[in-house]
Amino acid sequence: MSIVIGDWKFDHATYDESADVLYLSIGGPRAGTGEETPEGHILRFDEDGEFYGVTLVGIKYLIGTGKPATITLPHRESVDRTALEPVLA
Length: 89
Prior knowledge:
Layout: E1 3-5, E2 8-10, E3 12-16, E4 21-25, E5 32-36, E6 42-46, E7 51-57, H1 59-64, E8 69-72, E9 76-79, H2 85-88
């Protein structure tokens, strides 16, 4: 299942229900570094500094509010909850 947020299409999604954390990546998870967003999520960059994924913390809680979740990717995006709900079921 693919998740599209703004200009980014993430083709790998894993949800850890016990921690309420959604891991999204382009081309699969790999070694790299993380950078925290203003919202407390983690952007993932590979060893070449290319953006490849995001770790969304507390995402089921956030979309449960019924409001769009703001996620800062390499640029800020507003995401409608229906874009993320399929992987949280």
